[in-house]
Amino acid sequence: MFRRVRSGALGAYRYWSQRRVEEFAGENGIDLSWRKRAYTSPEIPFTGQWQLTTERTERTRYEVAQRITQAVGHLAGKALAKPPPARVASGRGCVEFALYSGAAPRPEVLLHTRDRDAAGRRVDVILFGSLDNTGYRPGDAEGPGRTPSSWWAVRDLLASRRHEHGWGDDEAIAMEALRIALDPGEPGPRPAGEPRESTLARIADCHWYAEVYLDIELDHGRWHLAGEPGMEDAHRIVVGAPLWARVGGQVPLRRPHRWWSRHRPAARGNGLAGGVR
């Protein structure tokens, strides 16, 4: 059966983790299944009744993303504007994809983007995922991503879903994640605006959705950031795993519950019973 494509569905996913999407939905009570629908015609004399049953087993990525967005979009969309901690977050802006060599036998991927909170302070979002969930290959970058000494702590943080990392305290591992994001390859930082050798792509208008495992505001009395390039104004660091990253189309928005359209009060006017309809 032909189905018209919504304008918002026209786009492409640069990252999609089916496993994490399904796990996130299951843990948060979001039903992603499709139900069988049956339509029965009214009973008409001498004509009988007919019944039509439709059942869909396939669901598009866009439909799954919409289902999740309708359930938690009101939390994710405002997560970076509110004080930490966030558990799920989303945003739209420039996202850098870079190679990252961690616990997996092959390179993984790191997504890094920046935003601003309600007070205009910098928010860094660092997301660690699988390169297999993208359309990129290691050869798309100039060089391989480095293997930091904290790779095992990042692995434990993601595997335990924020419960373990073994790298000092939460603030220390957040700082390490930011250092990895700013220097994900060799020979290190380059001039502003120039991609590092491990950069796979830099997407200017990318809508991302992520599960958050670590969300902290830096204690500026503890860290001296003036001597670290790119970190001078760092304030809040969000670390997690991406569910998806998408370009093109419209951001699926959570529609408000339209109770008012079904329960409008009777209008006053001409004195007729029931008012004007």
Keywords:
277 residues; alpha+beta; 5-stranded mixed β-barrel; two-stranded antiparallel sheet; 27% strand
Low-confidence runs of at least 5 consecutive residues: 251-277
The tally of strands reads 8
Number of helical segments with 4 or more residues: 5
Rg of Cα set: 24 Å
- In whole angstroms, the N-to-C terminal distance is 38 Å
- Class by SSE composition: alpha+beta
Residues in helix, %: 10-25%
Q: How does the SSE layout of this entry go?
A:
Elements lengths: L11 E5 L1 H10 L9 E4 L10 E4 L6 H16 L11 E13 L7 E9 L5 E8 L21 H10 L9 H13 L16 E19 L18 E12 L11 H4 L15
Parallel strand pairs: 6-8
Antiparallel strand pairs: 1-8, 2-3, 4-5, 4-7, 5-6, 7-8
Structure description:
This protein is an alpha+beta fold. Helix content is 19%, strand content 27%. The chain has 5 helices and 8 strands. A 5-stranded mixed β-barrel has the order 4-5-6-8-7, surrounded by 4 helices. Strands 2-3 form a two-stranded antiparallel ribbon. It is elongated, with a radius of gyration of 24 Å. Mean pLDDT is 80; it is low at 251-277.
